[in-house]
Amino acid sequence: MNALTLSDSLTTFLVIGAFLFCMGFYGLVQRRSLIGMLIAAELVLSGASVNFMAFNRFLAPDPVVGQIFTLFIMGIAAAEAAIALSIVLAVYRNYKSIDSDDVAELHG
Amino acid sequence: MVSLLTPEGLYGLVFLVLVAVTVTGAIVATGSSRLVRSVAGLALCFIGVAGLYYYLMSPFVAVMQMLIYVGAVCVVITFAIMLADPHPAAVRSAGANMLAGPLSIALGFVLFWGLVALAGGTVWPEASTRINDGSMIRVGRSLLTDYSMVFELISLVLLLAIIGALTLAREGRGGPARSKP
What we know:
- Chain A has a single domain (about 5-95), classed as Helix Hairpins, CATH 1.10.287.3510.
- In chain A, about 70% of the residues lie in helices and about 0% in strands.
- Chain A has helices spanning about 10-30, 35-60, 65-95.
- Chain B is an all-alpha fold.
- Chain B contains 6 helices and no strands.
- Chain B is extended, with a radius of gyration of 22 Å.
C-alpha cells in the first residue's frame, strides 16, 4: 500500500470521518464552556459530512444525492450555530458566564 | 509504485498535506484552552475538509464549505466569543471533573477504534452502474426538481433561525434595551 495513493480508497475517508467525529465527541464531553461545546458539535457534523461525501464518491449509484445531503447539513449547521450563539448571549446576559457548570439554578 | 516526482505523486502528496491540516485543526479545536485558538483550529480543520471534498470530485461542495463554514460559521463564533467574553484559562475545580478528562479520552478512543474496525472490516458493495457523473449541473438540476421540497423546507428553517436569533440576542449582552425618549 503506497501512501501516495491513499486518496483513492474509501477507507481513508472513513477513517478521517471517524477521527473528526471522535474528536468532536471528546470535545463535547470534556469542554466546559458552551462555545467550546458548539465548536465540538461542528466537528461532529463535519465528520458526518465527510462520510456522506466518501460514500457518494465511491459507492453511490447516483453521485448527486450525497452532495445535496452535505449541502443541507451545511445549512442546518449554519442555522444551529446562529441559534446556539444567540442562546449563549442570552445565557451570558443572565449569568455573566458561559461556563456550563454555572448555569445550574436547579442544582440540588 | 507511484514516484513522488510524477503528477500522480504530487496529487497524493497534496492529499496527505490536506489530511494533516484537517487532523491538526481538529486537535487544536478540541485541545486548546483558549476559545479563540480553538476557533482558529476549527477554521483550519474546515479548510482541510474542503480540500478533501475536492479530492472527492465535488468542487462545488468544497467551495460551499469554504463559504459557509470558514466564512460564516467561524466568523459568527468569533463574534460570540468577543461578545460573551469568556474567562481565559478557566480554573478547573478539582474533584468535580476528575473523571471527565481520562474517561472522555478513553471513550473517544474506543469509539474511534470501533468505527475504524468497522470501516476496515466491512466489504462495501460497489454500485454496478452510475446514472450520472455528479457534476454541478446535475446537482443544480436535481436540487430544483427531485429535492425542491427539501429546498423550500430548509429556506423556512433558515428564516426561523434568523428570526429566533434576532429575538434571543436583540437586547445585547447588557440587559433589556432602554426605550429612547
